[in-house]
Amino acid sequence: MPPHAGHVALVEAAAKLVDELTVLVCWLPDDPIPGERRLDWMRGMFPSCRVVGHGDVVPQEPSESPDFWPIWTGIVATVHPEPIDYLFAGEEYGLELAAQVGGFFVPLGGRILEARDAVSSLSASAVRADPAGHWPYLPEPVRDHYRKTVCLHGAESTGKSTLAAQLAPELGTIWVPEYGRSHCEVHREDLTRADLLLIGRAQQAMTQASARWAGPVLLVDTDALVTAAWCEMLLGERPAELMEEEKADLYLLMEPDLPWVDDGTRFFADPAEHARFADIVEAVLIDAGVPFERISGTGEVRLAAARSAIATLRRQ
After folding, report:
1. What's the N-to-C CA distance of the chain in angstroms?
2. How does pLDDT run across 13-61, given as a tens digit for each residue?
């Protein structure tokens, strides 16, 4: 809770030693990570195994009930009715459980990874306390669970791309550039509603496709909410489908306090229009109900503000 390299090693090694392996994933209602989610992860990672979930509230220690062992042997018999040759576990309880169900205990698990100092303290509780510190030892679905997406959000010429390029190396991650810029550089015609919907979908698709290559933080230069603001600014409407796209964990709202620079794809050189666009961009965040932090200033001040906001997010 969650699965980590020790669990993966346990299951993969066990699978090599038997013809059929049953993996039992158990949970309680107040677990910090829902049991059904962990069950889905394990089924996705080990499709050749029989992965079964058990979410009933039952005793967790022999001291909690005189019926502890009958209860648990019954659970095992239900999920694995065939005779058991080997029982695999990485903890001491496996010895008695094996005796109870009539199998031979094979103590695989996290201990087989202790040769590497960095993994010697690997445990689910340690991972929950510091997912980023254990990132190399987390399977992809667990990384997806813990990865935070930070979107740089703002009107044009507010330093989003510059800031993303500065932050990514510091965070040891990648950043997803703005699809809309590429679209407009190639297609010089006036943007239609269909164009803007495509831009929003393409931005989200690139973000989803890039996430697996990021570390604990994925940086995104705009998302569908920015495209919704563009739609409102250019066409006078805010499409619901853009507002309903998947949201980032944190938005850094770039204040419009930098000089406007014409890069060949920008629209609103007029200060009044630029200010109006900035107001719409902010209103979209407020109406979407997403968490955001204002980022202002120039140079190191702007960068430091972004660093601080991201650091706060990672501590949550």
Report:
1. 18
2. 999 999 999 999 999 999 999 999 999 999 999 999 999 999 999 999 9
User: CA angle, corner 8, sides to 16 and 122, nearest 5?
Assistant: 135
Does residue 245 sit in helix, strand or coil?
coil
Residue spans per domain, the chain: 5-138, 147-315
| Class of the CATH domain delimited by 5-138 | alpha beta
pTM of the shown model: 0.84
Asked whether the beta carbons of 140 and 212 are under 8 A apart, the reply is: yes
pLDDT in tens, 193-247: 999 999 999 999 999 999 999 999 999 999 999 999 999 999 999 999 999 999 9
Contacts of 60 (CB under 8 A, 6+ apart): 28
Let me know how many helices (H) and strands (E) the chain has, helices first. 13, 9
Which residue bears the tokens 């990570």? 33
Residue type, position 237, single letter: E
Contacts for 145 with CB less than 8 Å, ≥ 6 apart: 2, 33, 37
Q: Among candidates 182, 177, 195, 179, which has minimal Cα distance to 234?
A: 195
| 107/91 Cα distance (integer angstroms) | 7
Establish whether domains 5-138 and 147-315 are of one fold. yes
Nearest 10 degrees: Cα torsion 163, 195, 285, 243: -140
**Confidence band of 272 (pLDDT split at 50, 70, 90):** confident
Q: What percent of the chain has pLDDT over 90?
A: 75
Tell whether domain 147-315 is in CATH 3.30.2130.10.
no
CB 129 within 8 A of CB 223: no
